[in-house]
Amino acid sequence: MTAQTSSAERMPAGIPFIIVNELAERFCYYGINSILTVYMVQHLHFAEAQATIWQTLFKFGAYFFPFFAAILADVFWGKFKTIMFLALFYCAGCAVVALNTGSVPLALGLALTAFGTGIKSCVSTNVGDQFTTKNQHLISKAFSYFYFSINLGSSVSIFMCPVWLDRYGPRVAFGIPAAAMLFATLAFWAGRGRFTVIPPARSERQNQGALAFALCFAPVLALTGWVFYITDKSALAAVAALLLQMALVIWLCLKTGLRRALPVELIAWLEQSFTGDSLKLVLKLGFIYYIFVAIFWSLWEQSNGQTWTLQATSDLMDKHLFAFLKGVPLLGALADWEILPAQLTVVNGLFILAMIPLFTFVVFPVWARFFRITALRKICVGLFVIGASFAIIALIEDQIFHGRSVNAWWQILAYGVLSASEVLISITALEFAYSQAPLKMKSFMMAAMYLFSVSVGQAFTVQVNTRMIEPLQVAGVQSGAETWVSLSNVARLRVGQKIDLTGDTGLSMTGDDGKPTELAGTFLVQQVDAAGKRVKLMDVVHRQALASSGEFKAATAQVSTYKLVGPVYFWFFAIMAGAAGVVFIFVSGLYREKIHVREAVADATA
């Protein structure tokens, strides 16, 4: 009895290796992610919307490929072999990103890295696989440790990578995360003898089956990309095309003669997963994750090195966090310290580290005294909370848009509110996707619901940023100490509004390093000359008149602005999250939870 009790209260031996692997891998991913937009805007001179789209597509891939990996793990290889295979692509992609010298190598490196992040679905479900009905009460604690490691690793890299980029350049700033990913791979390999292994559905000719699956998966990807291209980069259309193709493939495998040519184990897995109650579960969870959880991720990921970071690059955001200590003995030196824009993201991880115990031991127990706590109720409240965080960001943007200074502590407040929503939704949705899935569908459901919902959220962000770009008809550009853009119509343009110059403009400017560089990227309207139908440009960061030289090439340059002007962009997302929360109040009452974990096996020592 004592041995059984001790066993039930002991954390499985494989958990530490999983957590160390996750800590290092998240250090890598979030380190790259924290500086990617800043690197593209400031080093490659991408327009802000273009950089947001590129990074969002990278995140889309990073959360889409776990879908591929989940089937590979559940059906053919199992989790360990799948993780080790994809980790090699992950390491290679990070190395290419670190060594890239332009936009094309960067795209290749990001593609390989995104493919390698397919391990996400396998690593997170591997946590739950270590438990049985005997010690299932420890699952929440293990997932909390798991999430703690995510935020510890991400916090360190988010704080340090911007410093490395600023001091040593992109090769060091991207190279250190690449080294961390190599360490993560070795750490997971070291724990290979300690993991509980859930065998895949297929027991024979696993490699042949995996190759055939990959060959079938390739045209699905190609067709999805084609839909994205022909619909003028409509990410939501591409997502819909992908889901329809997957549904069609499953139907063909189960309802046509194709099933006779497929392995018996694969057909059995498909029947178990996509018929009867399992199919109903997939549809119910899909509705919850692809709409409501996806909306959360659309907002949350913008705080993660994207639009929130771009907001913080403005000199109008005072980033001297400890200016109030000026004159204080011993602490006065901190008054002159200025946090870098990309470093502000680190406070999210720090808030999470503090809020996990706060919510676990204070908020949730108090909540339980008045209302029954369920996973779906947490998600519902979280939607309102994340909407509030974007409302704060919108108010900050309104100050900057009108040329007024604002302290970075206001953005830190927004991160605090955002972090509360993360505890309510992200951790809950992670555990919910695992607990609701039958045993043979754990990796698939983690990928298809929790992780793919992130991709759907990114698709929505891409859709908004693509559709809000409004081309402008340019009559010419006057270079010199001031840069004026002549337009056919300036009636809708306002001071502070963003103007993008992309393509080969034929113009150059002086960069922050004092060297001449191509005039391209995002700028602001400093003055509107309605009579002359022209606008004067200023730079985004310092808001000073833009000096340029050269002759404008109208044939190869594109000039555009954004339909969602200034704070309107953030208000759009804040209102969307609030509306989703209202609808989810009614949706959450229609779902009935059912937990699936392994049955306990009697201990040999018992």
Description:
- The protein has 606 residues and is α+β, with helices and mostly antiparallel strands.
- It folds into two domains: 429 residues, MFS general substrate transporter like domains (Growth Hormone, Chain: A), CATH 1.20.1250; 93 residues, Beta Barrel (Elongation Factor Tu (Ef-tu), domain 3), CATH 2.40.30.
- The strands form three sheets. A seven-stranded antiparallel beta sheet has the order 3-12-6-9-10-5-4.
- Strand 7 and strand 8 form a beta hairpin.
- The termini are close together.
- The C terminus is likely disordered.
Features of the shown structure:
606 residues; globular; 2 domains; Elongation Factor Tu (Ef-tu), domain 3; Growth Hormone, Chain: A; three-stranded antiparallel sheet; seven-stranded antiparallel sheet; 9% strand; 12 strands; alpha+beta; disordered C terminus
Quick structural summary:
This protein has helices at 2-9, 15-42, 48-77, 79-99, 103-116, 119-129, 139-168, 170-190, 206-230, 235-255, 264-274, 276-303, 307-312, 346-370, 375-401, 409-435, 442-467, 567-587; strands at 317-318, 406-407, 469-471, 474-478, 484-487, 498-503, 507-510, 516-518, 521-529, 534-539, 549-550, 557-562.
